[in-house]
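The instructor's notes for this session suggest beginning with a concrete chain rather than abstract definitions. Hand out the sequence below and ask the class to guess, before any prediction is shown, which regions might be ordered.
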Amino acid sequence: MTPITSLPEARHLVAQFQGGAYRRIVALTGAGISTESGIPDFRSPGGIWSTRSPVQYGDFLAFEESRLEDWHRRFEMMEFFSRAVPNAAHRALVHLAHTGFLKMLVTQNVDGLHQASGFPADRLIEIHGNSTYATCLSCGERAELEVQRPQVEAGHSPLCGRCGGYLKAAVISFGQQMPERELQVAAEEAQDCDLFLVLGSSLVVQPAATLPALAVRGGAELVILNGQETPLDSLASMVIRTPLAETFASFGEETP
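After discussion, reveal the predicted structure:
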């Protein structure tokens, strides 16, 4: 299959997603949808994880030094998140949700941009969690990150005001158990859709990378929009390489 690299052609093709030919769309988004909003891809070569190893969940639980390191990194990421705004690709997914055609959005991102775009919360699954707020590892109480900064700068990892448990950014860390219920729902939705869209995911991180294959086995059409080749390109009916925000710049403004 020859990837589509012409922006006008890509725009024409994605406009068809809103035409009603597909009634049960599921989308998977990865870092590539947010890089165009100014958020770095932390996993790619040259990203933050290539120079600074992520804090393992077991180390977070065991060592105060690791907890403080993780908190300092969260504040570092906040600088990117606070400046970023949803782009046209985020807004296109909101439009598809409002038409009723997009049944579920599964995201690998932890930046909160889908929420900021106004995407319906009941149709959003964050399989890697969310790094824009914290939760207590013991009781689940939510806490805001910025409130914890003075304690971290004083050299103490934040504790829950309700039960005294460790507070941690609500992202799923390396070595931490993935959310089973969310993964089950994502798999069920993938197997029941008629179109599975991949936007900005390299499809190399499991278990998210299994979802497109599940959709294809269930009879869905697979369309991959990503700047680089993915391991599942051969399963797709269409592969689009153009920048996502530019591709969806006029999406929803007119019917195909």
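Then share the key points. The mean pLDDT is 93. The longest strand covers residues 129-136.
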